[in-house]
Amino acid sequence: MQGGHMAIEEPFRLSSVLTSSKSSYIPSLTKLVGTLGPNSRSIETIEACLNAGMSVARFDFSWLDSDYHQETLRNLRLAMKNAKKLCAVMLDTIGRELPICNQTGKAIELKADDHLTITSDVSKEPSAEFLPVNYSGLSEILKKGDTIFLGQYLFTGSENTSVWLEVLETNGQDVICLVKNTATIAGYTLMHVSQVHASLPNLSDKDKQIISEWGSLNSVDFISLSYTRNVEDVRELRAFLRTNNLHETQVFAKIETVEGFKHFDEILQEADGIILGRGNLGIDLPPEKVFLFQKSAVYKCNLAGKPVIIARVVDSMTGNLRPTRAEATDVANAVLDGADGILLGAETLRGLYPIQTIKIVGRICAEAETVCNHSVLFKKFAIMLESPCLMLKLLLHQRLISKYRPPVPVFAVVIPRLRSTSLKWTFTTSAQARQLLGLRGVYPILASPNVETSGASSEESGLKIALDHGKSVGLLKPNDRIVIFQKVGDSSVVKIEELPA
User: Fold this and answer.
1) Residue of 29, 9, 64 whose CA lies nearest to 341
2) How far apart are CA 373 and CA 2, in angstroms?
3) Are 42 and 348 in contact (CB under 8 A)?
4) Do the Cβ atoms of 430 and 218 come closer than 8 Å?
5) Mean pLDDT lowest for which of 135-139, 329-333, 335-339?
6) How far is CA 249 from CA 100, 309, 441, in A?
7) What are the recorded GO MF terms, alphabetically (predicted)?
8) What 3-state DSSP class applies to 500?
9) What are phi and psi of 143, to 5 degrees?
10) Residue 22 binned pLDDT confidence (cut-offs 50, 70, 90)
11) Cα separation, 155 vs 350, whole angstroms
């Protein structure tokens, strides 16, 4: 109480909007996931994206084939070498998608108040009267009054390519609908039925082929499991990964339906991380409920110490150089809520300004981080940590430290170790280093394996690498205090040191 009034600590501190924006080697503690595609797959563009702040590259197999993505991945590796930056690889599954069968790709104009029949008869020619879908049970799961959404809204954010339909009746394998708005659909068009359970497999045959071939070949760091409905979906994917020798690959459950929301707690326990796919979620939930689910889900992820990534934030930047004011506010609020990362889809996949998008989103995240009242966050999680810079040596602790949202970068020094099998020698822990790129504020440094034989202990050598790196990029300066987490024998040691003047 102060002067008879209760003192309330604000969750963030307002700084002057006229002060200069944050400028740093690390643009933001919040991680940026960029989807690579037609407008972002050249070596030069990827290198610029890495320098702009992209730390995870997402490969969306709803688009194009494995050969195309393999060439993009080769470009990514060359760009990483040029930029001297690590980048994790995320494979995004296709999952339970329901695409309209329109092999011709021709544009189809639908007009408000007209009738349209969605049919399971794929021999039908797609037109303004009939649209075929390769799902035989469609008419059995729909009833009068249900809402169907179809179009490219999930990718473009443009309503003139999106159509809302109301089911009027079903007749055999046909579903007769009323068109609610005028629009033109073309190209890859998805159908989404609001809050209706379609008995589609968790992993499509194409998903299994992609994971067993492309995923195994490239030892992917993360798999984004689209349309995750329950904990069994996650367990099924883990079992499939084990059969394909992808034991280290982490599973990020993508929550984008009401069913996934209902089973969120058990999904969170099993998954390594969460992606909130707000494109589909914004269709499955009433618009006024989406923000509430986001805040609740992020809070639960923060408590569990598991990363949570927010998708669909700056749709307008697919074709525009600047986000809308609402989008910029949305990004900042996601950071203030506690998001670990922001996922960019169409904005970088085929958007006109992939590099600028990453730069702008990174600046918004950084600005939100500067006004966040970290002491309130620490109290929320029942711990207080303060230090100009944190150094992390123990991989087992990186999630715990990230969980408490320190306002400074956390460096993780990872020393690869040789492991032999009957067939070959390989380096271990490099995947763990890249996977740290999914955690807010944690920045891995992949040391040389020769550190182990340099004469000093691995702990001392690793610390020197972290300190030298921090100095070289301007994150550390004389008299800064650092917190060091080290492994000494079977014990964990935490100590505070001050850099010499």
Assistant:
1) 29
2) 20
3) no
4) no
5) 135-139
6) 32, 17, 21
7) ATP binding; kinase activity; magnesium ion binding; potassium ion binding; pyruvate kinase activity
8) coil
9) -145, 170
10) low
11) 10
The C-alpha atoms of residue 15 and residue 299 are separated, in whole angstroms, by 25
Q: What is the pLDDT of residue 328?
A: 96
Distance, in Å, from the CA atom of 413 to the CA atom of 405, rounded to the nearest integer, reads 19
Q: How far is CA 265 from CA 54, 286, 296, 303, 405, in A?
A: 29, 21, 11, 12, 22
Percent of the chain residues topping a pLDDT of 90? 49
Tell me the fold of 108-193.
M1 Pyruvate Kinase; Domain 3 (2.40.33)
Cα–Cα distance for residue pair 53/406, rounded to 1 Å = 19
User: Residue 158: enclosing H or E segment and its boundaries?
Assistant: none
Place of tokens 């989807």: 35
Flag the least confident range among 48-52, 250-254, 408-412: 408-412
What's the pLDDT score for residue 6? 43
Look at domain 377-498 and name its CATH class.
alpha beta
CATH architecture of residue range(s) 31-96+201-371? Alpha-Beta Barrel (3.20)
Residue 156, pLDDT above cutoff 90: no
CA distance 369 to 440: 11
Q: What residues does each domain of the chain span? A: 31-96+201-371, 108-193, 377-498
Spatial separation of the C-alpha atoms in residues 425 and 267, rounded to whole Å = 36
Q: What is the pLDDT of residue 371?
A: 82
Round to whole Å and give the CA distance between 348 and 365: 17
In tens, the pLDDT along 242-297 reads: 999 999 999 999 999 999 999 999 999 999 999 999 888 888 888 889 999 999 99
In DSSP terms, which residues pair with 223 in a beta bridge? 91, 251
Mean pLDDT of the chain: 84
- Cβ atoms of 234 and 169 within 8 Å: the answer is no
Following DSSP, what letter does each residue of 298-359 receive, concatenated?
HHHHHHHT--EEEE---GGGGT-SS--HHHHHHHHHHHHHT-SEEEESHHHHT-S-HHHHHH
Q: How far is CA 407 from CA 305, 371, 441, 456, 492, in A?
A: 16, 10, 8, 31, 23
User: How much is the pLDDT for 272?
Assistant: 96
Q: How far apart are the first and last CA of the chain?
A: 42
For residue 121, the surrounding DSSP H or E stretch is none
Cβ neighbour number for residue 64 with a 10 Å cutoff: 13
User: Is 101 strand, coil or helix?
Assistant: coil
